[in-house]
Prior knowledge:
single chain, 14 helices, elongated, EC 1.11.1.-, signal
Amino acid sequence: MTQRPLAGSFRGLRRIAVLTVLALTVPLTATTAEAHSGVEAAPGNPVIAWNIHAQTAIYDTAKQSPTTSTRSFAIVQGAVYDAVNAVAGRPYEPLVSAPRSRPGDSTAAAVAAAAHDTLLWLFPGQAESLNARYDEALAAIPDGRAEDGGVAVGRAAAAAMTESRRDDGFDPTAPWTVGTEPGEYRLTPPGYVNVGAWVPNLKPFVVPDAGAYRVKPPPALTGAAWARDLNEAKSLGAATSTVRTEDQTEAAIWWDDPRMVEWSITRQLAGAHRLSSLRTARLLAMVYVASADTLIACYKAKAHWNFWRPVTAIRLAGTDGNAATDPDPDWTPLRVTAPSPEYPSGHACFTAAVMTALGSFFGRDDLTFAAYSPASGTTRHYDSLQAATAELLEARIWAGVHYRFASEHGHRLGLAVTLDVLNRAFQRR
Length: 429
């Protein structure tokens, strides 16, 4: 497939309407108890209930990284979507499979079986807890043909999904290439770990070729653009910055927690809009699958450019050949730098995918939501997807973990991949 450059500038992101706005407003705010627990109420919606169980297994118990957990969530929610879609009579194109179903098959049983079986495939060591949740879910469903039929549909969807992901390139031991020349990626403090290089080689869920999306080269080290963005990250992103405001510091810490965007906010939206199980399954699958394919494309770009992170570049600025940059060998960012090359920003790619998928599903940008972050100890409120996205791009600079150009171009890449995913999948038949 021919590579397509991503055109356009996002310097004026706050003035750009990212998504179509429709005339519908539903205020969206988590209660304090829900926000602090990280668990939203899910009365009668088995898709949300099992998404919470998935969070427990993937993040709370397995402690998977944000990147690894994105693959896991896409596997689980993709299977749940195929199962619920089949029970509903296949109104949408399936993601991986379209199991045979009969009228009256239990949606709740299909969800439980699809989620349980995919989670058990991912985490066989959690069999006891996963089986307990599964037994609990089935105990609430009357025994009989409806339950049996739903279970059969869910298991078939899970089997098809897990088979499609065997040998998909997941290899947690794969290392990044580490360079020694100015501009080349070095391992970063404090851990200096070398993990995550499997992502560029992961098989996409929807797009034919994750390498078909690209960003332009990072700025030349000797140019004014490089000096500007390096010095901005150095000034605003330092752990001891005197120019970063208190609110910027809070935002930088708040956005460092991936649960704020993908888990809490997406479930809030599903609950506030009283989505059916089918619509919830489709929403979650759109968000997670688009995020997964976006991160694969994003990490392919990271591997290609293999660019150094601010914590490295600022300490070694004396080697970049630019008279407008000065080294600070003791410089430390506000937040810990993720163990991957700089360009483009993975978090910007990821957030663009989530927000674009949400906006596409609801058909609007003006969604009001809020969420609590245990990391910052605060709740932040937003009146649109665009406003949240714009703050995220700034927050990665305030955190000292990305340059502005990495955030902006990460957003562009995430937008392009997600639009492609949504054009290819989850459409009405």
